[in-house]
Sequence to fold (297 residues):
Amino acid sequence: MTEKHTGTVVFDGLLEGPLPGTPGSEEKLRSWVGLAARSGMRFSLEIDGGTFSILAEDAPVDAAALPPSPEEQVTEALKELLKIFPAAERTRLFSTLRSVEYLEGSEVQTLYVMRPGGEISAESRTVAADTTERPAVLTRAEKTRLGLLGSGAALLVLLAVGLLFRGSIAEMLRDLAPVDARDIEIENDVFGEYFTVEDRKAGSGGSSLVLMLKRTGAFPLSDEAADALYREKTGLAVKLAVESLAAGHARCEFYGRGGEYLGASEMRFAGLRDGESVETSVNIAPYRRCVRMRVTY
Fold:
C-alpha cells in the first residue's frame, strides 16, 4: 500500500488507443514520455501492433516539482500529447489516468477523462485522509552506509530462512511471480447473457489483458434498445448491468490467490454495437498477481 506522505503525488492508470495515423508517431510518443519525465511525471510506453498504452509509474513524486498544481501540470502535458493525434482520431483514445496529491490531513484525487469530443478533462475532489510527514532526505553517504548494512542484514536473513525453510522460499517466489494471462480465471456472469469472452492474451509486455468479446443476440444495439431493456428488467443489479451496456464499459475487479481484492480497471466494449465481436484491452499492470478477474457494473 502506498504511504500517504504530505507533499507527494502518486499517479496510476493508463491512456491507450490506436497509434496515430501520421508518420513518425511512435517516435513522437516516445519523445513525449521523455519530456514528461523531465517535468517530474514518469510514464512508460508500450506498443502492441497498431495500438499503444502509456502507463503511469506509481512511485511518489514531489508535488513541488509540478507547479502550479499537479492536476494543471498533468492536464497541460496531456493536451500536448493529444496534439500528436489528428482531431478525428482523438475520440478513439481511452484514459484511466489518475493522480492523488497528499496534503496535510487530506488528499486531492483527480481523474483525467477523455471527453467524447476528443478533449482531456480533469475532475478533482478533496477528501479527508490520514497523511504523514515525508521521511527526511538522506545524503549520498548515508544512503551508501544504509545500503551496505541493509544488504548484509538481508543476506543473513535469507541464508537463515533458506536453511530452515527451503521449500517455503520456492513457494514465496511462486506467489510473487506475475500470473500468465491464460491462468487468470474470468467471471462474466453479470454480462454473460449479452456478450461472451472468446479469447484472451497478454498485451503491452504483460501489463494488459487483451480480450476478444462476442455479443449475443440479447445485446442492445442502440440507445432505444437499451432503454427498452432497462424498462423490461426488474431488480437493481440487473438494471445497473443494463446501464453499463448502454454506456459501453464495465468494471473489472481483480482478486489474488487468497481471494483478496487487489483493485479494478475499466473495460470498454462499445464496439459491439457495430460489430459482432471486438478486441479490448484491460489494464492489469497494478494487479499482476491476480488469479481471478470479475466483470461487473
User: Anything to note?
Assistant: The CA atoms of residues 68 and 74 lie 11 Å apart. Residues 171-176 have pLDDT under 50 and may be disordered.
